[in-house]
Specification:
Layout lengths: L7 H8 L3 E5 L5 E4 L14 E3 L2
Antiparallel strand pairs: 1-2, 1-3
The structure holds zinc ion (ZN).
Protein name: Hydrogenase maturation nickel metallochaperone HypA
């Protein structure tokens, strides 16, 4: 079993530990990772971690 290739992006998104965030500006609920998380809906960084 030695397969190379495939959709790396998809695997990354699933493997990396994402946290749930909530945007305090628009109330959007989303998953993010890293130190600088911004709301995908309104691009605000005024977000709160739900975990
Ligand atoms: Zn937002």
């Amino acid at each position: 079993m030695c397969t190379v290739g495939g959709p790396m992006a998809d695997i990354k998104m699933k493997k990396l530990k994402t946290k749930r965030y909530k945007c305090l500006d628009c109330g959007n609920d989303f998953k993010g990772l890293g130190k600088r998380v911004i709301c995908p809906s309104c691009q605000s960084d005024n977000v709160e971690c739900l975990d």
